[in-house]
Amino acid sequence: MARTIAVDADRVYRAVIAKTYAANADEPERTSRHAEGPYDTAAVARRRATLWKNLGQEQQGWGPSRVDVQVESAVLVWELVE
């Protein structure tokens, strides 16, 4: 699916979500990690991180046993590709 992401900023931000699932009879403890972004402000990335943290709390008992979130930033430098 094609999509347009327009971020005109010198710095970009992303929310990084790590969901840890407790060990059970079928599988050992495991962690899945994904990132959402890039966003042009830290506030948007923080809102996404908060959303995932709240979802983790709501899913206690049947979802991940722990949800860790953080916001990361990077300097954006565009280069011409020929």
SSE order and pairing:
Layout: E1 11-21, E2 30-39, H1 42-58, E3 66-75
Antiparallel strand pairs: 1-2, 1-3
The N- and C-terminal alpha carbons lie at a distance of 24 Å
**Would you count the extended β strands for me?**
3
What is the average per-residue confidence, as pLDDT, rounded to a whole number? 87
Strand content: 35-45%
**Percentage of residues assigned to helices:** 10-25%
Low-confidence stretches: none
Strand order of the largest sheet: 2-1-3
Reading the helices and strands in chain order gives EEHE
Major β-sheet profile: 3 strands, antiparallel
**Rg, alpha carbons:** 16 Å
Report on this model:
The protein has 82 residues and is an alpha+beta fold. The chain contains one helix and three strands, in the order ββαβ. It has a three-stranded antiparallel β-sheet, covered by helices on one side. A hairpin with an 8-residue loop joins strand 1 and strand 2. The two termini are 24 Å apart. The mean pLDDT is 87.
Sum this structure up briefly.
This protein has 82 residues and is α+β, with helices and mostly antiparallel strands. It has one helix spanning 42-58, and strands spanning 11-21, 30-39, 66-75.
What are the key terms here?
three-stranded antiparallel sheet, alpha+beta, elongated, 82 residues
